[in-house]
Amino acid sequence: MPCTPRLIGRAHTGELGVRAGLDVLLPARNAFLSVPLDRLSEPVTDELTAAVAQRLELTRYLVGLGAASLTA
What we know:
This protein has 72 residues and is mainly α. The protein has one domain (13-71). Helices cover 64% and strands 8% of the residues. The protein has two helices and two strands. It has a two-stranded antiparallel ribbon with strand order 1-2.
């Protein structure tokens, strides 16, 4: 099936453009939501340090997925 341009907002894009946008948007959104910003005001404990480190590793992974989508 050929990809035909469609009007979305003010931009013309085809199905491939929409798919590419979603491939980048979803990992980026989840990456920023994975950082526990609400807990950063808590006193520093070993548990909090481990939780933040784990979430930052997840963030790095998700950002890498988004970046890979841009270059694929």
